[in-house]
Specification:
Number of helices: 7
Distance between the termini: 88 Å
Radius of gyration: 20 Å
Structural class: alpha+beta
Strand content: 5-15%
Helix content: 40-55%
CATH topology of the largest domain: Arc Repressor Mutant, subunit A
CATH superfamily of the largest domain: Winged helix-like DNA-binding domain superfamily/Winged helix DNA-binding domain
Number of strands: 5
Strand order of the largest sheet: 4-3-5
Shape: flat
Order of helices and strands: HHHHEEEEHHEH
Largest sheet: 3 strands, mixed
Length: about 150
């Protein structure tokens, strides 16, 4: 008799390897983060999770995100905002951030990823990661700004 065993999910495998308990809250935080396309802050994740877990604390969300980052399940997106933003680890990509509405978009940049680094970096030591963060004003914000700008009468 053949038994089909379900392949463990990425979070199950990572938790098992790290000796972490896979709690319902950890699993749900991971699911919410994986489903998110807006690179939410910990506060935004906490608000989304309150519907399913009315007693979940912001501290639990923060600590869980820290654990996910430590074990390669999530990334902290570096921004100029005071609030950190997060994403689940998926494919290699970079970020484009609107300075006006704070929207973050993912984009691939293969030539950047493949470019040789300056020799002085090799003399410095080992580079383990490189990321591009591009800032600008998105088209929606530009168009909105144009609509709000009063027309000068001469």
């Amino acid at each position: 008799m053949r038994t089909d065993r379900k392949k463990p999910s990425m979070i199950e495998a990572v938790c098992k390897q790290a000796g972490l308990r896979l709690t319902t809250q950890r699993l749900e935080i991971f699911r919410e983060l994986t489903a998110a396309t807006d690179h939410p802050s910990a506060e935004a994740l906490h608000q989304r999770l309150l519907a399913k877990f009315p007693t979940i604390s912001p501290d639990t969300v923060y600590r869980t995100l820290g654990t996910f980052i430590q074990h390669g399940l999530a990334h902290k997106v570096e921004t100029i905002e005071s609030q950190a933003r997060f994403e689940a680890c998926k494919t290699r990509h970079h970020h484009l951030i609107c300075k006006s509405c704070k929207e973050i978009l993912d984009f691939e940049w293969m030539s950047f990823d493949a470019a040789l680094l300056p020799a002085q970096l090799a003399a410095w030591g080992r580079v383990e990661n490189r990321n591009a963060i591009v800032y600008g004003i998105c088209r929606k914000c530009e168009e909105s700004k144009e609509l709000k700008t009063p027309i000068r009468k001469e």
